[in-house]
Amino acid sequence: MSSDYAVYRQLVTQLLNGEVVLPSLPSLTFEIRSAINSPKTSISQLVQLISLDPALSALLVKQASSALYRQARAPQNLRDVISLIGMKQLGVVTMAHSVKSLFTLYSPAYKKLFLEVWERMVLKAATCSVLAKRVGRIAPEHALLACLLSEVGSLVILSAFRTDVTPPSSDEYFRLCRQYSQSLGVMLLKRWEVEEEYIEVVRQTGAWDYCNSQWLETVDLVNLTLHQAITGRDKNAQLPPITEIAAYQKLQPPFNQLDVLGRLRVIADSQFEITEIASTLR
Question: How far apart (Å, rounded) are the C-alpha atoms in residues 228 and 44?
Fold first, then answer.
């Protein structure tokens, strides 16, 4: 264990204790989310709001122009983009963009770790959305956002090292995440006034025995995705077999089929689509 690990823990504990201010969502994000949720909002009003953030506008155009939407003619403006992707996906992309932009890149070492974490987050979120699409019951956009937010505490931990402190190694960082990510994620989402359902997903992420209903729920998709991501990265991870976790036992054939490597076949067979979705969030 690095001799610096105690210093890292102290910095993260300061976040938990409120000694360091947690990042706040931009006011524009709240305005856009509120407008999306209001039946009185017109597309023209949304276009006007989104235009205030050129980076978000560019990300939305990139999303709508991707192979996911299979359009013969690429959208020409934000009005076209909103009409094509819909309000739900607009909300997801807006939140994803806001979360990523909060954690400004500082030193090269910090940037390397940040990009590693973000890549892992978007791949998991894309996987979760595809799993939702295949299995049904839960909107893919909802599953994507829930999975992305389930990891937001990991980014908060990174924010403790954005000054002159040398970031921890990957191993040290993941150990910090196991200890603190959920608590910080819950604190942050409450601060952002995110819906309680997403906060509950954060609380139950990684709770392999959690079962609130006989029906497949969003947290089940998140836990299935997480289990596959961990075992894919670390063959020696101390996890129960996927067939023993509560979420897997809710899957109905053919979605519970495993391949020769023990992966959910529905995920293994969807790698192209997963990569496509992840690319729109990078």
Answer: 42
204 compared with 193, residue with greater pLDDT: 204
As given in the structure block, the two tokens for residue 65 are 């122009």
Q: How far apart are CA 3 and CA 1, in angstroms?
A: 6
Mean pLDDT of the chain: 87
Q: Which amino acid is at 272?
A: F
Q: In the numeric block, which tokens belong to residue 148? A: 């992305």
**153 with 189: CB under 8 angstroms?**
no
Report whether 202 contacts 219 (CB < 8 A).
no
How far is it, in rounded angstroms, from Cα 111 to Cα 132?
31
**Phi, psi dihedrals of residue 193, rounded to the nearest 5°:** 60, 40
Are the CB atoms for 150 and 202 separated by under 8 Å?
yes
Helix, strand, coil percentages, rounded to 5, for the chain: 65, 0, 35
206, 42 Cβ separation under 8 angstroms? no
Look at the block and give the residue holding tokens 């959690």.
210
